[in-house]
Amino acid sequence: MQHRTLRCPRAAIVPATIVAGVTVLTVLAATPAAAAPTATTVRIAAPSSATIGEPFDLDVTIPATTDVYAYEITIDTDEDALAVVDGSVSGPDGGFDRVEQDADSITVVHSRLGTSPALSGDLATSLTLTPTAAGDTDLAVASVVLVGSDGSSTTLTDPASTTVSVAAVPTPAPTAAPNPTDGPEPTPSTSTAPTPGSTATAVPVGAGGAPVRPAGGALAWTGAEVAPWAAASLALLALGTTLVTLRARRARRERNGDAA
After folding, report:
1. Tens-digit pLDDT profile for the chain (260 aa)?
2. Which domains does the chain have, with CATH numbers?
3. Which residues contact 88 (CB under 8 A, 6 or more apart)?
4. What is the 3-state secondary structure (H, E, C) of the chain?
């Protein structure tokens, strides 16, 4: 059996070719030429010094950009020296920002939302880091990937870096605790307050105001001077005895004289 080849009339081919050509031209005219986002450099800024446990801000700026719908910034650092504070990242308005730390790498991502227009000009992002170890720590922008509104991308690999010197927390100088038993040494004093009806006599007084006991095997001593009182008592006793004796002699003489 022979197969016959169907042939289309030339008059039908020409109109079909024209329609196809018009369709292709219409599609090409409706599709804009792809233009990758542009940028030339990156800037990074952080304080030159910090202290363990005291957070600080890290700022990254991509200046003079065009047609940026999203970007990804990769920062190299030492995970044992710096830690990202959760939820601290911020970027241009009208977009979504996210930051992740994986080992020695920190990744910051920004993307526009919905129908938000692409960005141009200086793009700034910021995040907060907490120092966890003392020493000089480097922060280097390893790469920046810019994505345009049509999906084209541009990568910047020229790194920008800075160094932060982290100091340990100052240790306060120890202070000696006061000893409740410490205090000024008591100084011996002498009581000179006179007792009514007596002669003021100096009495040695020790710590706490207690009289000082006599040394050696002396008898108990109350601190009062008794010698003058004893002498006066003996004198009065002798005087009384003499008066009694004289009175008895006088009475005896008077009785003898009456008897004579």
Report:
1. 433 333 444 444 333 433 333 333 333 334 444 578 999 999 999 999 999 999 999 999 999 999 999 999 999 999 999 999 999 999 999 899 999 999 999 999 999 988 889 999 999 999 999 999 999 999 999 999 999 989 999 999 877 999 999 999 988 877 777 666 655 665 655 555 555 555 555 555 555 555 555 555 544 445 455 566 666 667 777 777 777 777 777 777 777 665 55
2. 43-167 (2.60.40.680)
3. 99, 126, 127, 128
4. CCCCCCCCCHHHHHHHHHHHHHHHHHHHHHCCCCCCCECCCCEEECCCEEECCCCEEEEEEEEEEEEECEEEEEEECCCCCEEECCCCCECCCCEEEEEEEECCEEEEEEEECCCCCCEEEEEEEEEEEEECCCEEEEEEEEEEEEECCCCCEEEECCCEEEEEEEECCCCCCCCCCCCCCCCCCCCCEEECCCCCCCCCCCEEECHHHCECCCCCCCCCCCCCCCHHHHHHHHHHHHHHHHHHHHHHHHHHHHHHHHHC
Please give the Cα distance from 136 to 77 (Å, whole number). 11
**Identity of residue 16:** A
Kindly report whether the global pTM for this prediction surpasses the value 0.70: no
